[in-house]
Amino acid sequence: MSKPISTGSEWTFDLIQQYDNEIAKLAKEFGLDTYPNQIEVISAEQMMDAYSSVGMPVGYNHWSFGKQFLNTSKQYQRGQMGLAYEIVINSDPCIAYLMEENTMMMQALVIAHASYGHNSFFKGNYLFRTWTDASAIIDYLVFARKYVSECEERHGVDAVEEILDSCHAIMNYGVDRYKRPAPISAAEERRRQKEREEYLQSQLNDIWRTIPTFGKGDEPESRRQRYPVDPQENLLYFIEKNAPLLEPWERELVRIVRKLAQYFYPQRQTQVMNEGWASFWHYTLINALYDKGLVTEGFIMEFLQSHTAVIYQPSFDSPWYSGINPYTLGFAIYSDLRRICEAPTDEDRHWFPDIAGGDWVEVLHFAMKNFKDESFILQFLSPKVIRDLKLFAIADDDQEPTYNVSAIHDEAGYRLIREKLARQYNLSYREPNIQVWNVDIRGDRSLTLRHIPIDRVPLGDDSDEVLRHVHRLWGFDVHLESRDDESLLATYHCPPRRESEDLEELEDRIGNA
Amino acid sequence: MTHVIDRRLNGKNKSAVNRERFLRRYRKHIKKAVAEAVQKRSITNIEQGENISIPSRDLKEPIFHHGRGGKREMVHPGNKEFIAGDRLPKPPSGSGGGTGDGQASDQGEGMDEFVFQITQDEFLEFLFDDLALPNLARKKLKDTETFKYVRAGYSTQGTPAKLNVVRSLRGAYGRRLSLGGSRRRKIRELEAQLAELQAAPDVPDPAFSKKDQIQALEEEIAALKSRVKRIPWIDEIDLRYNQHLKQPQPATSAVMFCLMDVSGSMSQMHKDIAKRFFILLYLFLKKNYQRIDVVFIRHHTSAKEVDEEEFFYSRETGGTIVSSALKLMQQIIEARYSPAEWNIYAAQASDGDNWNDDSPVCGKILSEQILPLVQYYSYVEITPQDHQMLWYEYEKLQQAHPESFAMQQIADAADIYPVFRQLFERKAA
Question: What are the residue ranges spanned by the domains of chain A?
Fold first, then answer.
């Protein structure tokens, strides 16, 4: 047994280094592969800044971040926001923040959680490897910030703000989920920026070439080639490349928002896995410190208290309930995976034949690297976790007079619960599936988007607002159709139309069909 | 490899620009909120920040999201008694919540208002929107002439009452030392010789016997001593008087009289504009004086001293006699605010309505009794209409007393400022 690293609750830079050294040694033993760490000690006010810039170390200026900041500082004053627990930047080196008010125990927890947990997740998970380039992001953010402020100088704050507002409105539609993007590098971006402007303009002219087409107007609709030929799910990209009226600098702003969307995309897809992974490792690493005698009884008690608060899951009927806590779910799944490897039961052998009794470190790393929330839950949510959390599914069908309990944590329900919960984390289930359907390149240049509902769930009431933003970017009429196997459920237009126009169009279509 | 960096010394206000952008965007809302806050506040309590609240729906950043309806299925934790196939009654339609998107972030309660703090400076800026607020720095104000005597060393002239005995005697002693010093030394030397002589054995000397020598020495000593004695004990030249300089002492307290017509013709809108005017004056005075009293006098046909609440928010009906307020103000000055100790300011707001017979009376009271006592009297007439008798009466006053009388017609709050312009420019000279 060694001597504890520290006994008081005060931290010093020296102690932080010592704890980090010990944690790093242990992390290495557990096979955690990380980017180099950069730990920054900051004050509470700076933490608020960090919070409100959505975890970007440098961001462009925009009112929405100001709103976030005001909100954060208010919550902080009211004491609603406990401790700024962890903000960590997916970059190389990986930046984590420690708040000066925290105790030594808390600093050690955050180091284990962020600098070894999240950090190894960023480096290992396939979505991050595919979609983000940790070594280039900071440079890119700096470039973006500078570019935006130059635009503000040249074109005025309002003009820039309008474009950014509109881009933010469709920021969630800025990713090709099935196509690997080219990694971004700031130097390359700058070099190509000029080229891009000129090239794009020439491309555009190509799309919008208006050669008189004699006798083509009376072609039947079905024979006419749509543009784009296949529906496009990356709305921002489509606008950046095709919007007829955008100035080059506006296009560049669209691109900046799109690149950021791309950078945050994996985080939206791996919340449970990522938080669960970080929580599992802070728990495992700090406990290992305790086993080695490097931390005191008091330290570990205080630690367990914080840990419990982090993974607390109120039940569905509690006033504090606001959905499933990703920390809880992720932590439970990883912990149970370890149990399945170390002490498998018959049930585990039946459910996880290729994992039960395996090497837990390897199994956990495999799980962390090759999945996103949806597939991770589908693959690894065990009956025991379902039982522990007492999960049950409720179906709310607007055509039924009652809610229906469709599955609970019993033998008959495990698989159902697993599928239903996994689907809940599927992005297209969480966000409406909207794609670029057609552009009328020969006519009024209008853009038509198509919404494909899942389970008849309609679009929310912001849709008209969002469409206004799309219209601002596109510059010509924008339509949005909600379409369910050939029946048109709803349409939205910007500029708005009278209902009679809608009806006429419907009749035309039905007449044609 | 881990680097630990202390960033605490780096800039704090990374968010300042974004915050400012936010305020800029919601200017309209904030102005409205500030206007409401002013209604609630006392004018002596204007200098603080404010919680501003904006309806959350106005701040929403729209995104495509699912609406309600269709078939939704959600997995929840913490099952207690449900079994598969249970049917639960739905709440009557129209009650919110429901099984929304489990990750919805802003479904908490009391979140339909977005509340945030603005600072005092921001508050004032929104209050007097677009009037570049004067830099309310300490300007050299014309002040009541009170003086304070401060000790300023000693002078050689003064009245006997101010004679400083110690200093005078010290001077005398010094003079005596300097004048008699050499003679005293001589005396000491001679006395030493004398003692030596007396102690020495008698050596007969026919020419200059010891006795003669002693006598000669004694005579010399006596002569010297009488010379020394003739140095005057104290002389005109030694006298020192305490010197006091007269320093003008600005009175550190000011009193501000707010006079307002509350007859039936003054609407709440009129009063709000007047309130802003009073606030601005108060803020200006607050920069200049340590202590400020505010006296509220409201009048219709008769005047009354009231508290602020009543001043701004109670309605009266009936006609208007302005002079009643002026008379009351004069009485209050007499009773409580001696112009020797108080800087008196007055601000009068009215819609210009007055009984015609009364206007000349007002002019008279002002020019003869009030204006000589006050630092500054400002009158604002809140009306878009043509002037009436009172205005013309006051115009005469302004010509007669450009130093201490300002008047302005105000149609809305933005017109308030010129009155202050005058106030400052006059004093800045």
Answer: 13-125+270-306, 136-200+228-268, 346-429, 432-511
